[in-house]
Specification:
549 residues; alpha/beta; 18 helices; elongated
């Protein structure tokens, strides 16, 4: 039974929630207009009291660049060097901002503000540095930039610009001090690294020289290679070249071709055989215009030319073979084991890297020493301390409008909670849902004629039902006894034989043919209706309708 009861309740409330609409909202407003009015009035009074006692909050601000060109020289130099030597840069700008918020920089300004308030007769015991910084100062970087925004808030308008002026002076003093410290630290850091790298460079250079002497190696700085490797590659090229030339020489059949090759060989240009071959070749070409091939004189010259061609070809071949042997010998001399060359190349590269690093360190140190000799403000003030013309508080009109919105809203919540707490039934649909019945008639007693007409219509609807020997009227809630008497009297007159039962006891109605609930709204509780419906369910009886009074 308990589970059935829970299911009934759950179903009832689900149906009710589905049908919540604006009509329910406005009905709540109508029934609880006093609560909503007093809530709105109270909200308005609180708003007025707040506005009368509120102090205007004024704002001033300025901007500075944390990394001007002078500071960039220092910071960039140090940052680059730290990265080279495995020292993490970190988020230096954020660290700098946190330093600028620290008491070491802003404590004098805090004391200045505290003394000013104390002179004005205000209680300054609860004003701590932490609260003052949190509530009145806003210091932060512009997104993705090195621009620092400084904003100061105070109820004393005259105090804004003096405070901002003191902050700018404090920052300049700190930045100058910080600049000198950064330069000194940078130079000290570089001196230390230079001493370390001098030793390291000497050691690596000596190691490379010793290894080169041991293996008869030398580094060519101009061509960035080891000489022995270069010589070996050159020898290989020459060997391949002379091998090809020997092949070409064997295929030559013409004296002119042979002479053409000899012209590219400097050592053979003055050779007597070369001159003879050149002369006899020219002579035979001239004779070919005068003599025929069968002439003995011409044949003798051609034979002499052929012998001279063979002799000089042997000379050229001997020259090529001698050069080939020479270059093969050089290639053998220049060969070294691959691991020896790799090791030497590694030693040379290490020595060069250490020397380059030492040179860069010395260049960075000279730059910082020059920077140290310069003077000037390390930071740039982008905007001067400025006081906004209007206070930043929310405008009075907005606050009043807000109070006129919040007041009714709170009143509505209070009214809704009150009705939920009381569980009163105000809706006809809710009433009908809980009792699972429909309204038959609404009886109005403001006019006797109307009342009689409505009752007559109600009686006619009952008479149309054949089973009307026993009629039960079940009152719910507080009803006007006189009105109930009129209703019962009219029913008794209309039904002479029918038994009219007026009772709150549901059990007494178990034998009745028809059952009607008579009730009004606004003073009926939902749990009373649920209990009534539960009793009817236990008796397995249903209501035939609801008479609304």
């Amino acid at each position: 039974m308990i589970s059935d009861k829970n299911i009934i309740k759950k179903t009832i409330y689900q149906d009710i929630n589905e049908e919540v609409s604006f009509s329910v909202f406005f009905s709540i407003l109508k029934r609880n207009k006093k609560i909503i009015f007093f809530s709105t009035f109270a909200s308005f009074l609180i708003c007025c009291f707040y506005l009368l006692n509120r102090k205007n909050i004024w704002e001033g601000n300025f901007q500075i660049v944390l990394t001007k060109n002078e500071m960039n020289t220092v910071s960039n130099s140090l940052s680059n060097l730290k990265n080279k030597f495995g020292i993490s840069k970190g988020n230096e700008l954020k660290t700098e901002v946190e330093v600028l918020k620290s008491p070491s920089v802003l404590l004098p300004i805090y004391k200045f503000v505290k003394l000013d308030r104390e002179a004005s007769g205000l209680d300054v015991k609860k004003i701590t540095y932490k609260n003052w910084l949190k509530d009145q100062l806003a210091i932060g970087l512009e997104q993705e930039t090195s621009v620092l925004n400084v904003t100061y808030l105070d109820t004393n308008k005259e105090l804004i610009l003096p405070v901002l002026g003191q902050i700018t002076l404090a920052y300049k003093e700190y930045s100058g001090r910080n600049r000198k410290k950064s330069l000194k630290n940078g130079i000290d850091f570089l001196n230390n690294q230079i001493n370390i790298n001098k030793i390291k460079s000497l050691v690596s250079l000596k190691e490379a020289q010793s290894y080169a002497f041991k293996h008869n190696l030398q580094w060519d700085n101009d061509k960035k290679e080891i000489n022995v490797v270069r010589d070996f590659l050159k020898a290989q090229i020459q060997i391949e070249s002379f091998e090809n030339k020997l092949i070409q020489l064997n295929n030559i059949k013409s004296a002119n071709e042979l002479l053409g090759i000899a012209l590219s060989i400097e050592n053979l240009k003055d050779d007597i055989t070369f001159r003879k071959l050149k002369g006899i070749t020219l002579e035979t070409e001239n004779m070919s215009w005068v003599y025929k091939e069968n002439d003995d004189i011409y044949k003798m010259k051609l034979l002499e030319k052929k012998q001279m061609f063979r002799t000089f070809k042997d000379i050229v071949e001997s020259y090529y073979e001698a050069e080939l042997i020479n270059w093969k010998s050089k290639a053998e001399e220049s060969q070294r084991p691959q691991n020896v060359l790799s090791k030497y190349r590694e030693l040379i590269n290490n020595a060069k890297f250490d020397m380059d690093t030492l040179t860069k360190l010395e260049t960075e140190r000279r730059a910082l020493e020059l920077e140290k000799a310069r003077s000037g403000d390390p930071w740039e003030l982008i905007t001067k301390p400025t006081l906004l013309e209007e206070p930043i508080n929310t405008s009075k009109i907005k606050i009043v409008l807000l109070s006129l919105i919040i007041g009714p809203f709170i009143g509505f919540l209070l009214a809704s909670n009150r009705e939920n707490y009381l569980k009163l039934v105000f809706s006809e649909k809710e009433f009908e849902k809980i009792l699972n019945t429909e309204k038959i008639v609404t009886l109005k007693f403001n006019n006797d004629n109307d009342f009689e007409d409505l009752v007559s219509l109600f009686i006619d609807s009952i008479k149309s039902n054949k089973n009307n020997n026993s009629i039960a009227i079940i009152p719910v809630g507080t009803l006007d006894s006189n009105l109930i008497k009129q209703l019962l009297s009219r029913l008794n007159r209309s039904f002479d034989k029918a038994r009219i039962l007026y009772t709150k006891d549901i059990y007494e109605t178990k034998n009745s043919d028809l059952r009607f609930v008579v009730s009004s709204l606004n003073d009926v509780y939902s749990y009373d209706l649920e209990f009534l419906q539960e009793k009817l369910s236990l008796l397995k009886k249903e209501l035939n309708g609801w008479i609304k009074i």
